[in-house]
Design brief:
eight-stranded antiparallel beta sheet; globular; GTP binding; alpha+beta; 414 residues; Elongation factor G; nucleotide-binding; single chain; 9 helices; binds guanosine-5'-diphosphate
């Protein structure tokens, strides 16, 4: 059965080392597990049991792509989190991961702001025109300054960073944010480790600042929607949350705006809100016009659309060894469908090989699946001859997706 691609997200989390990528990812895996369980009524273990177990065990991403499920406003989303190496030595690997993901959560430390590896990764992401949202982490630390980081993203990275929130309280007293889209305060609940939040009034002493930044937000998004622009001048109070989100989504997809939010993953604040915005603002595979490659028979350019009915085309982006299932090849499927047990053509080796099994890698289990379709990411077992960068496709409709010549990170500096 093919999944509705509208509810798929292939995202990466990029950051300078120490900004909190590991902590944030662990929070996501944890919430996704809890969130998923809440949606299932027949499970034996209660949510609390599960939370305690997972907290004791400590869940970490060990895989090149980890799949989580996320319930958002009544829909169930399927998120593949692609590992993007933070270290400067892995630029080739960063390129490879940027090639296969559709959107990025870009993490900054609220104290250190834009750091050298943020600059390198930001520019690599610019080369691939990857839509992104910014998450300013460590808001609980002394010296944390959300708006300073927003300014740095504008001035040092040359992007139109737009705050969607303003922090309530600072350092130890950081407890929530004003949500500028909905014009309300939110404080993350402690009893479920920040998985949910409580609405609070906007603090009186923030009223002027909130008015000013909400207006800036509305002005920025109104540029992407004419009717919103009219309302902005005639009757700003009539602008709805949905109108703001839709215009913001378009601006984010076009990489014209980088929406910025904040939190403290270590203190369980803000990660849930950020993840909800991933569903709202970052692209699904359907937002892509397709992938372009070369037909090896005649050198002509070919495009494959994100559709299971198109001929199969996938890129092998990471080879890894898993202690339980052995040698795994991680693939991003761009078009068509691949069944476990079937044969696939490799345009480099010019050989056909049989796929014995396909897996979706979760934080705590490897989930075998019967097939994998356009827009999805998974791990395949069975190859004898496979290299990262290989294109796997339908023999009758061959395509080479990538020559593994990557853009130079120095080119295109802002
Ligand atoms: P990574 O190198 O980006 O993966 O960063 P880690 O997640 O390993 O975090 C680096 C250090 O910062 C660790 O000691 C974390 O406990 C700490 N840390 C991460 N997030 C926060 C945060 O929101 N607040 C504070 N105070 N510390 C944090």
């Amino acid at each position: 059965m093919s999944r509705d691609l509208k509810y798929t997200r292939n995202i990466g989390i990029a950051a300078h080392i120490d900004a909190g990528k590991t902590t944030t990812t662990e929070r996501i895996l944890y919430y996704a597990g809890v969130n998923h369980k809440i949606g299932e009524v027949h499970e034996g273990a209660s949510t609390m049991d599960w939370m305690v177990q997972e907290a004791e065990r400590g869940i970490t991403i060990t895989s090149a792509a980890t799949t989580v499920n996320w319930n958002y406003r009544g829909d169930k989303y399927h998120i593949n989190i692609i590992d993007t190496p933070g270290h400067v030595d892995f630029t080739v690997e960063v390129n490879r991961s940027l090639r296969v993901l559709d959107g990025l959560v870009f993490l900054f430390s609220a104290v250190d702001g834009v750091e050298p590896q943020s600059e390198t990764n930001w520019r690599l992401a610019n080369n691939y025109e990857v839509p992104r949202i910014g998450f300013v982490n460590k808001m609980d630390r002394s010296g944390a300054d959300f708006l300073k980081v927003v300014k740095q993203v504008r001035e040092m990275l040359g992007s139109h960073a737009v705050p969607l929130q303003l922090p309530i309280g600072s350092e130890d007293a950081f407890k929530g944010v004003v949500d500028l889209i909905n014009n309300r305060g939110i404080v993350w609940n402690e009893h479920d480790k920040g998985m949910t939040f409580t609405e609070v009034p906007i603090p009186d002493d923030m009223a002027d600042e909130v008015t000013e930044w909400r207006e800036k937000l509305l002005e920025a998004v109104a540029e992407y929607d004419e009717s919103l622009m009219e309302k902005f001048f005639d009757d700003p109070a009539s602008i709805t949350e949905r109108e703001i989100l839709n215009a913001l989504r378009q601006a984010t997809l076009d990489a014209k705006i980088v929406p910025m939010v904040c939190g403290s993953s270590f203190k369980n604040k803000g990660v849930q809100t950020m993840l909800d915005l991933v569903m709202e603002l970052l692209p699904s595979p359907l937002d892509s016009a397709g992938v372009t490659g070369t037909n090896p028979n005649n050198g002509e350019e070919v495009t494959r659309k994100p559709d299971v009915k198109e001929p199969f085309a996938a890129l092998a982006f990471k080879i890894a060894t898993d202690p339980f299932v052995g040698r795994l090849c991680f693939i991003r499927v761009y078009s068509g469908n691949l069944d476990a047990g079937s044969y696939v053509y490799n345009t480099r080796s010019e050989n056909k090989e049989r796929i014995s099994r396909i897996f979706q890698m979760h934080a705590n289990k490897q989930n075998p699946i019967n097939n994998i379709g356009a827009g999805d990411i998974g791990a395949v077992v069975g190859f004898k001859d496979i290299k990262t960068g290989d294109t796997l496709c339908d023999e009758k409709n061959p395509i080479i997706l990538e020559s593994m010549v990557f853009p130079d990170p120095v080119i295109g500096l802002a």
